Structure formats: structure tokens, C-alpha cells
Amino acid sequence: xxxxxxxxxxxxxxxxxxxxxxxxxxxxxxxxxxxxxxxxxxxxxxxxxxxxxxxxxxxxxxxxxxxxxxxxxxxxxxxxxxxxxxxxxxxxxxxxxxxxxxxxxxxxxxxxxxxxxxxxxxxxxxxxxxxxxxxxxxxxxxxxxxxxxxxxxxxxxxxxxxxxxxxxxxxxxxxxxxxxxxxxxxxxxxxxxxxxxxxxxxxxxxxxxxxxxxxxxxxxxxxxxxxxxxxxxxxxxxxxxxxxxxxxxxxxxxxxxxxxxxxxxxxxxxxxxxxxxxxxxxxxxxxxxxxxxxxxxxxxxxxxxxxxxxxxxxxxxxxxxxxxxxxxxxxxxxxxxxxxxxxxxxxxxxxxxxxxxxxxxxxxxxxxxxxxxxxxxxxxxxxxxxxxxxxxxxxxxxxxxxxxxxxxxxxxxxxxxxxxxxxxxxxxxxxxxxxxxxxxxxxxxxxxxxxxxxxxxxxxxxxxxxxxxxxxxxxxxxxxxxxxxxxxxxxxxxxxxxxxxxxxxxxxxxxxxxxxxxxxxxxxxxxxxxxxxxxxx
Length: 537
Ligand code: ADP
Ligand code: MG
Fold this sequence. Notes:
- The protein is of the alpha+beta class.
- It is 28% helix and 29% strand.
- The protein is built from 12 helices and 27 strands.
- It starts with a helix and ends with a strand.
- Magnesium ion is lined by residues 45, 47, 239, 241, 378, 409.
């Protein structure tokens, strides 16, 4: 396979991202206790562009971030299909330039969404692979695989990446792995969380917990266990990854995480920085050789690969050089860029990131002096300029960056998986409901023709898991069914809140209005997933 991945004319040297190869870390030997039961649990950061797996080692009382078969600590969230193979991770990304329509990535942007969502339609325009509407308006990625057109849901693609992460951990530990904690962005709704759990199930994993990425990063730094943590502590998590940037302000008190505000950009990340660099070298090539490489996708892709490497180098050196044989028109190209030039090319993007920090603070109605800790997350926060701008913004505050930022989320997930393992599933009060949850009710006797109003069953900031009941009745004589509409939000009227879903309770026994007793139950699981049921008593 490695021959096939790297044909003689491959534009990629053997070590695709040499700066990523940090050397295989030898696992510490498994102890008998770790080998018992279901084996060690793992934490997986299932990222949009890169994923990372870490394992909690109880006998050593520490987390180990697991290198993949290439020796890299993060694995591209990319799956590629050919007539003969299915490739996942580095192998898939390495051949993507030659097989763009069958190399799928960004599955996380589709998971739990509908084909007709505006964001899905917007993304489809940018992707080289095909996405078609499937059953129940689910988006399906369409590829040629084994000589046929095959359709995969985002859950299936994510499950393939999860299998890769599971196998990575298994190869490292030398035993099978079953239990996993998976992280998701704060803004993931119910169906996106459920779809992530489904992806775990398809991968044959038992999902112990779904946890928010910034909460996981805070756990990695032990911010939930600081001395004096009886008082609330406010943490700002700054996550600049491959394709997205997220700022979250979280308050931590007695191990409970409350999201105060979030801000961010769904299309701002490392790839945009690469684009700027590619554009820079395209112009340079044009100037030096009077030849435009923009017409050649292959040349562009080779240049992009070189830029990715140069960018990573610039995080530790002040100048990066590369050469590409016969880049275009048989011209060998020598590229050179300084860190200062790179920063200049991207300054407006870096500033945008800081604007999101300001916006998040103002949404949380907070001043920057009220932030106790600032945590760096995401590979692109390795860039010194990003760190400097952020540190300057916080008046020289020391940033939490001792854990590699692209590993921090998986690290925290692994800590949590260890705790789940030790204490069972429902041990910690980890999260709260960010918004009130309720059902719509009408009362035409009180006031005819008024809009539905919100009957809150689970008030905001209730720690989860939680189960609450409400008692209701019918509005008309001999009513046969009741429509149950579930909302979240703080408005007194449901029209001001967000409709999460609805269903009909049918087959009521005919009775005068006000007589039937209907009990509705709302249950929010530890994962943040809401279940609503109704019975006619
Ligand atoms: P995700 O956004 O999928 O969560 P990561 O947090 O791992 O992914 O971020 C991936 C991004 O980080 C990529 O765009 C990559 O180019 C960038 N990156 C990784 N290492 C470095 C580095 N040393 N310097 C600059 N950027 C880096
Ligand atoms: Mg990430």
C-alpha cells in the first residue's frame, strides 16, 4: 500500500509533514488492572480537519496522547476511496490531490444536519466531492468505490475515522479498546450530538460520554479541580483549528461547567492561512518565471502542501524554505518566506480572531479582567503571532499552553474517560442546560386567541442529567390528540423561543375538556441529549 500511496512521481516526500513527526512515544507497559474489564477507555477529539486520540493510564496516573502509524499525534479527518482501497487519515490526505472527487473531508460540517440547511448548501459549493440528498433529507457523500458509486452519511464517514483512532490506540496499547469519550463543539445541537453517538456505535464503540470541546480543554488543565474551586472560576477557551475558530467563555464551579457565551467563525482557520501563502507564491512564481500556475490544479496542490509545511516550520523558526521539482512548465521552484512576511499576509485574519474574543466577552457581559484563565486550543494557536496578540489583549496574562494545543481536547476527554471508568457513568455533574426547556401551552379559557406560551419544565442552568414532569390536560371536549411542541429559550411566549421538535399524542379517550390527565416528561441525559415523552394517564 505504501508503494501505491507514494508512486515514483509523488509530489510528496516520504515524510509528508516532517514537523508533525514527533517520534513514536513508547507506551508505558499495561498493568494487569488496566487489562481487566473492558480495557482502557480512550478520549477522541473528532475534529473537522484533524482528529486526536489519548488514553488515560490509571497505573501511571497520566494521559498519553497516542501517535498513529505515521508517528503523528493528530490524524487528518479524511477518508478516500479508490477502485481497490479505502484509505483513512494521512494515507487518504496524501493522495487527495490526485483523487479529489473521492477524497472526503469535513464530514463534521454535515453531521446531524439536513441537506437543505443553508450551511450545508454553502459548504457543498466549496467541496470537490459530491453531496446528494438522501432519505429523510439527510446529506450523503457520493464517491466511486470498488468500481461503483457508493453513498455514505456523515455518521458513516465519521465512524471510519473513529475506527482509525480506535485502531491507533489498540496498536499502541496492544489490546482492544471499547469505551470512548468523544468531544463535540459547544454549538452542536441535539441531533448533531446524537449523530456523533451513532458514529461511535457504527464504529463498534461504547460512547461513555459526549463532552463539549472547550470543557475538555479546561479539564486537561485541571481547571475544574483547582484549589479553592468552591468559588466560580471563569475560563476563556480560544480554539483556532484547521477550518474553524471558536471562542467560549465557561464558568467552572465544583466541577460543573456552564457555558456563558460563545463566538467564532465557521470558516476561519489554518487553511485560510495556507491560502494566503499559496497566493503569495503564485504571485512570486508569476514574477520570477512569467508563468501562471493557477491553471494547474496539481501544481497548486503541490504548492499548498509545501505551504502547510512551511507554515508549521514558521511556528518554530523565523524563515522557511522549500523546493519543488518541476512545479510548472518544467520549472523547478524555490520558495522562501520569513515569519514576518507570513504574519503580514495574515494579519487581518489574526485580528479577526481577537475581535471574536471581544465579541464573546461582550456577549457574556464581562470585562477581560474577569477572566481567570485563557486556554489555547487548536493547531493554529501554535503560531507565535496568534499567541502574542492574545496575550497582549489580556494585558500580558500567561496563557495556558503547556499541553500541545491540538492535543488538549483529546487529553481532557481521556481524563474524563478515566473518571467514567473509575466511577461509573453518572458520576459527575459536569454540564448544565444553557437555556430553559419547555413545552407550548394554550389556555383559550383565560384569554382567547393568545399565542402559545412557554411552560418551562427544565429551567436554564439546571445541572444534567435531569428528569422533570409536567401535568397537562385538554383544551376542548372530546379532544382526540394533543400536539406537543418543545422549545428552548427564555421568552415567555413560544414565538420568541426556538422550536426543537414536536410530536402528536394520539388516541385520547373522549372526555370533557380539562378531564384527561396528560403527563409529559422531559429528560436531559448526561450527554446533553433531550428526550420528551407524553402519556394519557
Ligand atoms: P481541527 O480544526 O480539526 O480541530 P486542529 O486543532 O488539529 O484541527 O488544527 C489543525 C490546523 O492546525 C491545521 O490547519 C494545521 O495547519 C495547523 N497547525 C498544526 N500545527 C501547526 C504549527 N506548528 N504551526 C501552525 N499551524 C499548525
Ligand atoms: Mg478542534
